[in-house]
Amino acid sequence: MVLNIITYLGIFVFALTGALKARAYKMDVFGGLVVAFATAYGGGTLRDLLIGVRPVNWVNDNLALLLVFAGAAITFLLKSNVNKFRRTIFFTDAIGLGLFTAAGIEVSLRNGLNDVYALVMGVITATFGGLTADIFCSAVPNLFKRGELYATACAAGGMVYLLLKEFDLSSNVNLTICVVLTVALRIYSKRKRIMLPDI
User: Fold this and answer.
1) Radius of gyration of the chain (CA)
2) Disulfide check for 195: which of 5, 68, 70, 147 has CB 3.0–4.6 Å away?
3) 199, part of any domain
């Protein structure tokens, strides 16, 4: 039940993020829907293809599709300047990272992957939708920005989730901790300018 809530909330938040990006880059309604769809579904689709889930998560899921349209519609109705959009995009993206990291790991574990590959799939689920959206917007993807704790925040939250599974805690508690920790780490690292060293 909690996994479904996290998944659907993640779809909505990432659809909102994608639509806000499209708005910031002055796209029309169709472009906004495409970017919203790519952001919401990109990572989960790649995960399902890699681990052999058929059909992929969004096929025949009318609620998920409705959430994407809702995110795009809310963005269309907003009347604010671009700078506010950019701040909002960061926070919605951070929330989406946390939600999809937890969901991606849990889905992978339920499909028989070991902890290491489940963690990789969690990071892919969280980051590749945003990567696709940034490419569509001709922007430098957050995943590749110098020093950003983006995928690193997902990996850290995911590792804590996997470690907590060794203790006598419910899966719902573990999922919630993973989400909160990933979001907090992403926001804190950005505000404090904590960066990874150069290669």
Assistant:
1) 16
2) 147
3) no
The H-assigned helical ranges of the chain are 2-24, 29-51, 62-77, 82-110, 115-136, 151-164, 171-191
pTM, entire model: 0.92
Query: Residues 112-132: pLDDT tens digits?
Result: 999 999 999 999 999 999 999
Domain count, the chain: 1
Tokens describing residue 102: 């937890």
Tokens describing residue 146: 């110098």
Residue 103 has pLDDT above 90, yes or no: yes
Distance CA 182, CA 129 (A): 17
Amino acid, single-letter form, for residue 172: N
Is residue 79 classed as helix, strand or coil in its secondary structure? coil
Q: Is residue 57 part of a domain?
A: yes
**Which among 104, 157, 159 is positioned nearest to 129, based on CA atoms?**
104
Query: Residue 95 and residue 183: Cα distance in Å, rounded?
Result: 5
Confidence of residue 91 (pLDDT cuts 50, 70, 90): very high
